[in-house]
Design a protein that fits this description.
heterodimer; A: 117 residues; seven-stranded mixed sheet; four-stranded antiparallel sheet; 50% strand; globular; B: 113 residues; mainly beta; five-stranded mixed sheet
Chain lengths: 117, 113
């Protein structure tokens, strides 16, 4: 049971390049999330998904797109990277309340460190 | 979600108990208290959560006051690997979709040899 994994661990991009970050979970969780963490700041939610085929915007969605084609995977895309997107990106997943769980404790991946030059 | 207040930093000797306080005086009746921690350069890690009763698991104990306005996370025998930023988060059940966890500044716990 690997939990939540993220690919890649590190990446350097030039301004204007595109890339996709992959998050995978093997816990059969319904909900998945993408956060970013900048120095001196807490985690901020970018997008989230409450099930396969559904996504929703978080508090900082601009410049990012997501897809949840399979329950276990949640992809975060940057179409045209900007230096302001230099950050550490964390993916998380949680079970849906009611599936034998009272609360939606979130489990996080190890993070992807992205630098945009 | 209710706001929480935590001391910015604490020190603890290795092998001793670490008691991390959290104030949440505006907590409402259906809101849970969660604790997460983030070890340097790693993703946040869930520790424990509770509603009104004290809770214990293999990592820690959570003591919630009777009026629920404050709580204490207890690491019974702190090790150097427990050095991390500890976040106290108060939130209710998600409404419809599952909203973000609001991580404040947390408490930087340093365990000293």
């Amino acid at each position: 049971n690997a939990g939540v994994t993220q690919t890649p661990k590190f990446r350097v991009l030039k301004t204007g390049q595109s890339m996709t970050l992959l998050c995978a979970q093997d816990m059969n969780h319904e909900y998945m999330y993408w956060y970013r963490q900048d120095p001196g700041m807490g985690l901020r939610l970018i997008h989230y998904s409450v099930g396969e085929g559904t996504t929703a915007k978080g508090e900082v969605p601009d410049g990012y797109n997501v897809s949840r084609l399979k329950k276990q995977n949640f992809l975060l895309g940057l179409e045209s990277a900007a230096p302001s997107q230099t950050s550490v990106y964390f993916c998380a997943s949680s079970p849906r309340p009611g599936q034998g769980f009272i609360t939606d404790t979130q489990y996080f991946g190890p993070g992807t460190r992205l630098t945009v030059l | 979600d209710a706001k929480t207040t935590q001391p910015p930093s604490m020190d603890c000797a290795e092998g001793r108990a670490a008691n991390l306080p959290c104030n949440h005086s505006t907590i409402s009746g259906n809101e849970y208290v969660y604790w997460y921690r983030q070890i340097h350069s790693q993703g946040p890690q869930y520790i424990i959560h509770g509603l009104k009763n004290n809770e214990t698991n293999e990592m820690a104990s959570l003591i919630i006051t009777e009026d629920r306005k404050s709580s204490t996370l207890i690491l019974p025998h702190a090790t150097l690997r427990d050095t991390a930023v500890y976040y106290c988060i108060v939130r209710g059940l998600p409404q419809g979709g599952s909203e973000k966890l609001v991580f404040g500044k947390g408490t930087k716990l340093t365990v000293n040899p």
